[in-house]
Each structure stands twice: as C-alpha cells, then as structure tokens.
C-alpha cells in the first residue's frame, strides 16, 4: 500500500513543478532571443507571429493565468522590446486564444477571468504586440488540439517556425524548428485551424489610443465585438447590474479629458446608465482591477497603466483594416 503524501509535501512538489515550468519557458525564450534577431532585416518588413494559449488552458482557475502572467509573460515582453529595438520595421503578431468566460457558472471565477483577460491583453498591446483574439469554445475544441496547433513562434517571411506544444505546461518542453517547405506546410495548418475556429478580432494600440480622438470606424466596431464576446449573452450593465442585450461601450474615464482608450478603460453600460454618466469620470482606469502582489508592483509595471508606450511613432502600425497584415505575413 503506497504511503500517503503529507499535504505540505504535496504543496512543495506543486511549487517545484511550477518553478521548473517557468525556468524551462525562460530557457526557450532565451533561445528565441538569441536566434530570432538573425532574421530581422532592417530593409524589409518582417512579421513575427506567436500564439498565446495560457488563458485557454487554465480558464477554470484564473489565478494560474495570473501566476504565469507575473513571471514568464513579463520576460517575453521584455524580449519583444529588444526585438523592436533591433528592427523598427518588425511587427509582432500574436494569436491569443480565449475561452468564453460565460461558460463558468461561478460568478466570481467568471468575473476574475474577464479581468484577467483584460489585464493580459493590455500588457501585450502596451508593448506593441498586435493581438488577433480568438474566442474558442472548450466544449467543441479540446485543449490538447489548441496547444498542439497553436503553441509556436514563426517568421513567415522566412518559412521558419518554432513549435513548442507544451510551452505552458509543467512537462518537459519539446521544441522543434521547421523551415523551408516543412515550415510553410506547418504555417498552412495554423491558418486552417484559426479560420475554422472563429473570426479573428485584431486589436492594437497606436497614437490614437493615447490622447487621440475617440476611436471610430472598424477599430471601434472590433472593440465592441471583442467586449460582446468577452461578456457573452449574459452581459450585465456595469452601472445598474441589469442584464442587457444591446450595450454602450463606455469610456470609464472620458476621452474629452484626454484619458487613454485602452482596454482597461472600457465597460459595458445600458443606454440609460450611459446617458446619465456622460463625461463623468468613473473609477481610476490606470489601476489594474486585479491587484498584483505588492512585490510585483514596480515603477515599470505602473508605467504600463499610467503612461504612453515609449515606442509610439516608431513602430509600424496598421493604418487601415486592409493593412492589418504585413505583405509577407501570409496569414490572411
């Protein structure tokens, strides 16, 4: 009969597994940092493409998403800043695969997942990443399918792809480097998987998000579509808490007072609450709703909520819906 494991020992084992996973992820990121810049050509627009499935894999426990966000994602974003410095014309596109939060019956977990998603995306957009958001239904597509298809980093202009199917897991990471026709074939598989599993909602930040005029046109429509899917059919007004069908996408702190139009400064309101609020300021949009541990509340992290990104005016951003993709990206 196997001996029972002491609860404290079980917890220590769990912590050790998580630390090993973060260490392995850091090692993979270090390899990317060393290798990828060799492909960045200042004379041509080179598009990097990556996927992000961590929220989808851990949607039943948003705290796990935050744990990874606090560790590995911050390292990844620092690497992205270095990529930006090396090639001002490079564009990092990232597929972010999300579950429908409305699937969670527990209201608290559902609300926490919504806030985790907003924080997760805001951090990436602030760092200049262009995010293609996919909402997938875990009841129709398995986590194993998603992770196998969409844990990768690729440079389509060079038919190069790094496959890391267990990147967010605690198992041993298996990295495969595919190039040439093999890389092209793998990129085709990714394109087919994405197109089969719903419409991509492309989000990005540029000068218009930080002190510019109120967003409109296709970018405003995309924002509304994103919040519609994020909250799902059981959407409630952030003002009166009534269930609503149609909604107004409200700036928590008004554009007229030069507040930023970032994801964390939007909320759904019913028509009457939106009309009553007008240009009144709501809660502080620069304070993340999820309070990160005090030891992680650094000046750098605070800058991500309170200041304009340093890359504004230098990185290539799409100016229209037809320019969302670099010509050599090949993932339309």
Write the layout of secondary structure elements.
Elements: H1 7-35, E1 47-52, H2 54-57, H3 62-86, E2 91-99, H4 107-126, E3 130-136, H5 143-150, E4 152-155, E5 160-163, E6 176-178, H6 180-196, E7 201-203, H7 217-231, E8 248-251, E9 266-269, H8 271-277, H9 299-306
Parallel strand pairs: 1-2, 2-3
Antiparallel strand pairs: 1-4, 3-7, 4-5, 5-6, 8-9
Helix pairs in contact: 1-3, 3-4
Could you give a quick summary of the protein structure above?
The protein is of the alpha+beta class. It has 2 domains: 160 residues, no CATH class; 78 residues, DNA Binding (I), subunit A (Orthogonal Bundle), CATH 1.10.30.
Give the SSE order as H and E letters.
Answer: HEHHEHEHEEEHEHEEHH
Indicate the mean pLDDT.
80
Taking Cα atoms only, what radius of gyration do you get, to the nearest Å? 20 Å
Cα distance spanning the termini:
57 Å
Q: Count of DSSP helices?
A: 9
Q: Judging from the principal axes of the Cα atoms, what is the shape? A: globular
Note poorly predicted spans. Answer: none
**What structural class do you assign from the helix and strand content?**
alpha+beta
- Secondary structure: helix percent: 40-55%
Number of strands: 9
Q: What percentage of the residues does DSSP assign to strands (E)?
A: 5-15%
The total domain count is: 2
- Largest sheet entry: 7 strands, mixed
- With strands numbered from the N-terminus, the spatial order across the biggest sheet is 6-5-4-1-2-3-7
Please tag this protein with its features.
globular; DNA Binding (I), subunit A; about 325 residues; alpha+beta; two-stranded antiparallel sheet; single chain; 7-stranded mixed β-sheet
């Amino acid at each position: 009969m196997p001996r029972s494991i002491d609860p404290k020992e079980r917890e220590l084992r769990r912590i050790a597994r998580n630390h090993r996973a973060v260490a392995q992820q850091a090692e993979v990121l270090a390899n990317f940092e060393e290798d990828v810049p060799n492909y960045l050509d200042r004379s041509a627009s080179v598009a990097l493409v990556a996927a992000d499935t961590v929220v989808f894999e851990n949607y039943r426990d948003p705290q796990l998403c935050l744990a990874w966000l606090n560790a590995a994602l911050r390292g990844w974003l620092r690497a992205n800043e270095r990529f930006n410095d090396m090639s001002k014309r490079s564009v990092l596109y990232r597929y972010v695969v999300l579950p429908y939060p409305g699937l969670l019956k527990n209201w608290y977990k559902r609300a926490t997942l919504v806030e985790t998603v907003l924080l997760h995306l805001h951090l990436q957009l602030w760092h200049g990443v262009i995010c293609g958001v996919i909402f997938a239904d875990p009841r129709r597509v398995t986590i194993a399918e998603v992770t196998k298809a969409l844990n990768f980093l690729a440079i389509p202009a060079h038919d190069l792809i790094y496959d890391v199917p267990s990147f967010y897991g605690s198992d041993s990471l298996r990295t495969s480097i595919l190039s040439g026709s093999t890389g092209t074939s793998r990129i085709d598989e990714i394109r087919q998987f994405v197109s089969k599993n719903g419409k991509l909602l492309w989000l990005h930040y540029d000068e218009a998000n930080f002190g510019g005029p109120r967003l409109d046109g296709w970018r405003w429509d995309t924002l509304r579509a994103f919040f519609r899917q994020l909250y799902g059919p059981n959407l409630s007004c952030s003002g009166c808490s009534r269930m609503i069908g149609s909604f107004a996408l409200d700036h928590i702190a008004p554009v007229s007072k030069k507040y930023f139009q970032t994801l964390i400064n939007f909320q759904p309101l019913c028509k009457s609450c939106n009309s009553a609020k007008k240009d009144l300021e709501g809660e502080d949009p620069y304070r993340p709703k999820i309070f990160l541990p005090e030891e992680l509340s650094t000046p750098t992290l605070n800058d991500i909520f309170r200041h304009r990104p340093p890359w504004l005016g230098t990185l290539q951003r799409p100016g229209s819906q037809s320019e969302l993709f670099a010509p050599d990206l090949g993932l339309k």
